[in-house]
Specification:
By secondary structure, this protein is mainly α. The protein has one domain (2-162). The protein contains six helices and no strands. The chain is elongated and about 100 Å long.
Length: 163
C-alpha cells in the first residue's frame, strides 16, 4: 500500500513538472547543474587558465582582467535568476507537500477520533471503568483546526514577548 502511494505521488509530481513552462524547466535544470562539484572544478580550471594565459605575452585581457570581470558579473547575474526561479519552484512544491501532509494529518485525526469513540462504546458495553477510559475519552473529540492554530499563534506571541 505504501509503495503504491509513493508511486502515485511521484507520478503526480512528474506530471506537474512536465506541465511547467519550458523556461521554468530549463531554469531549474541550469540551477541544478550549476550547483554541482564538477561545475565548481570547471570554473576553477577556467579561471586559472584565463589568468595564466592573460599573464603571458599572448594576453588578450591583461591585468586587471576587465573582460573576465564582465563575463563573471554577467554569469553571476543570470545564475542568481536561475537560482531564484529554482527556489521559487521548490518553495511552491514544498507548500503543496505541506498542504498534503496537513490534509492527511487532519483525516488521520478524524479517523482516530471515530475509533476512540467506537472503543469508548465498546468499553461501555464491556463495563470497563470510567477511570480506565479517562485518557481515551479526553482525545475522543473532534479537533478544531482554527482553535489549534489560534493556540499556536498565542504561544508564539508569548514566546516572543518573553525572549
Amino acid at each position: 500500500m505504501t509503495r503504491s502511494n509513493i508511486e502515485v505521488i511521484l507520478r503526480l509530481e512528474r506530471e506537474r513538472q512536465a506541465r511547467r513552462p519550458w523556461a521554468y524547466r530549463m531554469a531549474a535544470r541550469i540551477a541544478g547543474f550549476c550547483g554541482t562539484a564538477p561545475v565548481l572544478w570547471l570554473h576553477a580550471i577556467f579561471f586559472a587558465s584565463w589568468l595564466g594565459f592573460n599573464a603571458s605575452s599572448l594576453a588578450f585581457d591583461p591585468y586587471p582582467f576587465t573582460f573576465l570581470t564582465m563575463v563573471v558579473s554577467l554569469e553571476a547575474i543570470f545564475l542568481s535568476f536561475f537560482i531564484m526561479i529554482g527556489q521559487n519552484i521548490a518553495s511552491r512544491e514544498n507548500e503543496r507537500r505541506h498542504q498534503l501532509d496537513l490534509q492527511i494529518n487532519l483525516l488521520n485525526e478524524r479517523e482516530m477520533t471515530a475509533m476512540l469513540r467506537l472503543m469508548g462504546t465498546i468499553a461501555d458495553k464491556l463495563e470497563i471503568s470510567e477511570a480506565d477510559q479517562a485518557e481515551a475519552r479526553t482525545f475522543a473529540h473532534n479537533t478544531d483546526p482554527r482553535a489549534l492554530l489560534e493556540q499556536i499563534v498565542s504561544a508564539e506571541r508569548a514566546a516572543r514577548h518573553t525572549s
